[in-house]
Design goal:
The complex is a heterodimer.
Chain A lengths: L2 H21 L1 H28 L7 H7 L2 H7 L5 H32 L6 H9 L4 H33 L8 H25 L3 H29 L29 H21 L12 H26 L5 H25 L5 H26 L12 E8 L14 H7 L7 H18 L3 H21 L3 H9 L8 E13 L4 E11 L6 H22 L2 H7 L12 E9 L5 E11 L1 E3 L6 E3 L2 H20 L4 H4 L7 H14 L7 E6 L1 H7 L4 E5 L4 H9 L14 E7 L2
Chain B lengths: L1 E10 L2 E11 L4 E6 L5 H9 L6 E6 L2 E2 L4 H4 L2 E4 L11 H11 L5 H10 L13 H13 L5 E5 L7 H18 L2 E5 L3 H7 L2 E6 L2 E7 H7 E7 L13 E8 L2 E7 L2 H9 L5 E6 L2 H11 L4 H4 L1
Parallel strand pairs in B: 3-8, 3-9, 6-7, 7-8
Antiparallel strand pairs in B: 1-2, 1-4, 4-5, 9-10, 11-13, 11-14, 12-13
The chains are: A alpha+beta, B alpha/beta.
């Protein structure tokens, strides 16, 4: 392109920009007035909220009593209510600007590209002495400039106001600016592409809205099906933590994340749009589509959306006695109906319907082939196990092993799994591990219908997750918070296997269930976990119930490492009439215990630390000396209080002669909060002389192994 | 000079312009006439660069026209229904045209604003149909185009404005050697203005000729007999239309007068009068010859 030609194009672009500014002046003023009005309302709202909380008379102390201190002061880092309200104003202000930008940019570009959808405008702009590419790009540029510049000005105003009110340039300001710059570019380009492909503004808007809805929803369903059919192997994708679920959902570019990706995406869309604009037949203005292919694709996307969703539900409900058949019929019926309806909406006639239905049939065939292949392949888990001849060593842990990092105390099951890879080097033990894994795979094998159910359950959890965590920053907060037991995904390892191969590489397989706090799904428990416990646990115990394993992997071997554990000594003592069991807690100490305000954890003092370590070391020594009691001693792992009582009765019936009713209970506070597990309970027998001695030295029990006189009576359980 | 070669434009299954060949020299006024749906407007849109063509080419002084901003800068096109935004005025549109068209002339703009008595600051959308056309003309002609493309431009214009427009166009042609191509069904107005015309039907160019030449080629004769002779009187002649009324026969005949007049005079008519056809009559007879006549429609 010559310099003269380039200058000429710039002149034309400038002409179009001037023209768009003139024609959109009133709209621009309207949006600006609306933005200012909403921002004033936001400020008034925050002020009123401040007054209602009586800010002027509040001190920092009051703050901690009003709203959860941990969340607002430690997670959000607010100094006081005022601080919080100004922050809220910043959030609302930026939200308003972004919201108005989304609407205004769409309205500008829709109006600007009206020449593609109106025959009279087509005559006018088509005859102007500028190339099609110049016209198209100039119009996009114009819409971008008149959307983004006011938005950036308003963002600057919000930021300056926030700074004047004592707020730092918060973490949402920069993403907000990037979000506006890149989001407007991407969304204007995407709309423009649809505008080129469509013959009417209405269809362009429908397509634009549809892609923002259809892609993420189809992705969720597809992912849910894959999750359902591969559960135990793949983990459900966290909607917020990955680009993929929103990769073709341009509205999410306004979040300000994945800037490079969206920039690339926007450029590709812009180039494609320009190419199509040059090739476009102008006479298709006011026709449904300028490029029929886009209509086909759209109809197929809608059919895919409804087909997948209703097909999956139909498959999960097993409506036709066979999961796959139910899915197929559900997909076919709803997909076809939605395909026809979409055709009628877009083309407003039955013309070409029969011809285009072939594309739906092709889509149906592809989906069925994919789902069938997934179904056939999904139960073939055993191929994941390496050949025994290739394995140098291996190990296994389950979720009742303590998988907390001994240094940081964080829950890193993946890392921990690698640590077990050299536990067993003998072929016999490795074979046992393989057998355990094979049995686990057997329990994971489910019917097709059940897989769809699992997919649906996963989807529901994902939907909750997505809606709750839509505000990105809050997601980050929860993730960083110690109190991550609110509205967040968590992972519960079931068990993990690790092999070190002869070639030095590792194969780690973690069997993990994912669930959502407050809405624990039973999908794994139903199918896997219970089965694992009842059928695999015995074999697992044979491998792992030894002092070596305990020393290496159990918290009892190193109780004072990490963030801390609670250590409790509980005494279960039958009442005189033998009908109930009273529970006493003579000793309860946390390595990190709660502070006075019962909100924070404070380090454990040296004296208590020594007591805890002494008791745990003594217990390990007892186990080492009396391996025959190992199973009984550890038999209460992963059980609830009611199970303990049941055990109490069982042992009573057997009339064993040792005292079984003292337990050491170790819990990790995170585990307690997050997973509501019971931690571990270790039974102390009379013959455990070292432990008894340590307990006596700590004045927890007396010389008769009776509970200390000042023990707290905590509960009574009816054993009949 | 505009060269149209083998130009074809299809709308789905309909061929709007079919393998058209045409040369348009500079400094001429060409009337595009034809039946409804004959492809006149489509041809104009292709000449204006609005539509791309499926086959063939349009070159202007050897340069391809489509999507060529340099060539398009020499063209000015007023469609049958000009578009104006709700807030468009002649004043604000003039700035757009001025920025886009390389030959925009403020002098011409001022002059045309004086010729056409409409407000420059009033919203065009609120104006009458005729005034909107005048607005379009002011803007379009101010670009000092080398080629003016007008589609049904006389619709809605009052006789005075029509006359003014014709005068302005003639001045453009004479002063600036501008080429004007007008598609219209108003053949009476075209007849005053055009020196050439193209007759289109079903996408094809039926006839392309100088108006005078065409009129010379086809005549209406009124032949009076004391008694009409028997037999095939006009055997061998190219009779387009023949009507008998008593002893008078009216014929429309194609050909050279020197060729057919001796045969007619040999019939011993009482008198023979020769009348030139109007463009409208030319249109009707030529279209009739192509099978498009009142009898064919009704």
């Amino acid at each position: 392109m010559s310099t003269e030609s380039f200058k000429s194009k710039l002149k034309q672009a400038k002409a179009y920009l001037k023209w768009e500014l003139k024609t959109n002046a009133s709209t621009l003023i309207s949006y600006s007035v609306l933005t200012i009005t909403l921002m004033i309302f936001a400020f008034i709202f925050c002020s009123m909220l401040g007054n209602s909380l009586n800010l002027n008379n509040m001190s920092e102390k009051d703050f901690s009593t009003g709203i959860d201190y941990i969340f607002f002061s430690k997670v959000m880092h607010f100094k006081d209510y005022r601080d919080m309200l100004f922050y809220l104003f910043g959030v609302l202000g930026n939200g308003i600007v972004v919201g108005i930008t989304i609407v205004s940019s769409l309205s500008y570009i829709a109006k600007s590209l009206g020449y593609l959808h109106n025959k009279r405008q087509t005559d006018m702009f088509g005859s102007f002495p500028s190339s099609r590419a110049t016209t198209y790009i100039s119009k996009i540029f114009s819409a971008y400039v008149i959307s983004v510049i006011p938005a950036l000005i308003f963002t600057l105003i919000v930021t300056l106001l926030s700074i004047c009110l004592g707020q730092p340039v918060s973490s949402f300001t920069i993403p907000s600016i990037f979000g506006i710059i890149i989001g407007a570019f991407v969304n204007i380009s995407v709309y423009a592409l649809f505008a080129v492909c469509c013959g009417t503004t209405l269809n362009s808007v429908i397509m634009y809205i549809a892609i923002n809805v259809i892609y993420p929803v189809v992705f969720l369903f597809a992912k849910a099906i894959i999750n359902g059919f591969t559960y135990g192997i793949t983990e459900p994708m966290h909607a917020k933590e990955s680009l993929l679920p929103t990769a073709l959902c341009p509205i999410t570019a306004y979040n300000g994340n994945y800037v490079l990706y969206w920039l690339f995406f926007g450029i590709v869309v812009l180039v494609a749009g320009t190419y199509l604009a040059i090739k476009r037949k102008s006479e298709f203005a006011q026709s449904p589509f300028a490029y029929n292919a886009i209509g086909h694709i759209f109809k197929l996307c809608v059919a895919l959306l409804f087909g997948l969703s209703f097909g999956t539900i139909s498959g999960a409900l097993n409506l036709f006695s066979n999961g796959l058949l139910s899915f197929a019929i559900g997909f076919l019926f709803t997909g076809l109906v939605s395909f026809v309806i979409t055709h009628l909406i877009l083309l407003k006639s039955f013309q070409k319907l029969l011809k285009s239905i072939f594309s739906f049939v092709a889509l149906f065939a592809i989906i069925m082939v994919a789902v069938t292949a997934l179904d056939l392949n999904s139960n073939n888990y055993e191929k994941l196990i390496p050949d025994i001849d290739d394995i140098a060593s291996g190990g296994i842990v389950d979720n009742s092993d303590i998988y907390l990092d001994n240094v940081t105390g964080s829950m890193d099951f993946d890392t921990y799994t690698k640590n077990i890879s050299e536990d067993f080097t003998d072929r016999e033990s490795i074979e046992k591990i393989i057998n355990i894994e094979k049995k686990a795979f057997e329990y994971m094998t489910a019917t097709t219908s059940r897989k769809f159910s699992i997919g649906i359950e996963t989807l529901m959890v994902q939907l909750q997750n997505t809606s709750t965590l839509e505000i990105g920053e809050y997601n980050e907060m929860y993730h960083n918070s110690l109190y991550s037991n609110t509205n967040d995904w968590t992972e519960l390892p079931i068990f993990g296997v690790s092999y070190k191969l002869n070639n030095g590489s590792y194969v780690n397989q973690n069997f993990i269930e994912h669930w959502y706090y407050g809405d624990l799904t039973n999908l794994y428990r139903d199918n896997f976990n219970n089965s694992f416990e009842s059928n695999i646990n015995d074999e697992y115990s044979k491998l792992t119930r030894n002092v070596n394993h305990l020393t290496k992997h159990s918290n009892i071997a190193s109780p004072c490492n990490g963030n801390g554990y609670f250590l409790c000594i509980n005494k279960y003592q039958k009442s005189e009439d033998g009908k109930s069991v009273d529970v006493f807690q003579p000793y309860a100490v946390a390595l990190s215990e709660k502070s006075n305000d019962n909100k924070r954890l404070a380090p454990l003092d040296t004296e208590n630390k020594a007591i805890v370590e002494n008791i745990c070391n003594a217990y390990l020594k007892d186990l080492q000396e009396k391996p025959e009691l190992m199973d009984k001693a550890l038999s209460l792992w992963k059980v609830s209080n009611s199970d303990i009582l049941q055990y109490h009765r069982d042992v009573d019936t057997e009339k064993n002669d040792y005292d079984y009713s003292i337990y050491v209970m170790l819990k990790h506070p995170d585990a307690n909060l997050m997973l509501t597990l019971d931690g571990r309970d270790f039974i102390i027998f009379d013959s455990f002389e070292n432990t008894i001695k340590a307990l006596r030295e700590a004045n927890i029990i007396d010389d008769n192994n009776m509970i200390a006189s000042d023990a707290n009576h905590t509960a009574t359980y009816n054993i009949n | 000079m505009i060269e149209i070669k083998n130009l074809t434009k299809k709308f789905d299954k309909l061929t709007a312009v079919d393998s058209m060949n045409l040369s348009i020299s500079e400094g001429s006024v060409i009337g595009l006439v034809g039946s409804n749906g004959s492809g006149k407007s489509t041809l104009l849109r292709m000449l204006a660069g609005v539509y791309n063509y499926d086959k063939g080419s349009i070159t202007v002084d050897g340069e391809e026209l489509f999507d060529n901003e340099k060539v398009k800068g020499q063209f000015s096109y007023i469609p049958d229904f000009p578009f104006f935004y709700n807030n468009s005025t002649i004043n604000n549109l003039s700035s757009l045209y001025k920025d886009l068209y390389p030959n925009w002339s403020d002098e011409l703009f001022q002059h045309l604003c004086e010729v056409f008595p409409i407000s420059k600051s009033e919203k065009i959308i609120n104006m009458s149909k005729g005034m909107q056309r005048q607005a379009a003309l002011i803007l379009s002609l101010s670009t000092a185009p080398k080629y003016i493309l007008l589609d049904e431009i006389f619709d809605g214009l009052d006789p005075v404005i029509r006359l003014s427009l014709k005068k302005i166009l003639i001045d453009y042609v004479s002063d600036r050697n501008t080429t004007v191509i007008i598609a219209s069904h108003n053949l009476r107005e075209l007849e005053d203005l055009c020196d050439r015309f193209c007759l289109m039907h079903k996408g094809q160019l039926l006839l392309e000729s100088e108006l005078d030449e065409a009129k010379h080629e086809i005549k209406k004769l009124q032949i009076a007999f004391t008694k009409i002779p028997d037999g095939n009187l006009f055997k061998g002649l190219n009779i387009v239309n023949q009507q008998v009324s008593g002893n008078i026969i009216n014929i429309v005949i194609k050909g050279n007068e020197k060729d057919y007049m001796p045969q007619i005079k040999a019939l011993n008519p009482a008198f023979v009068s020769t009348v030139n056809l109007t463009l409208e009559e030319l249109f009707i007879y030529e279209m009739g010859a192509a099978g498009y006549d009142v009898n064919g429609i009704l």
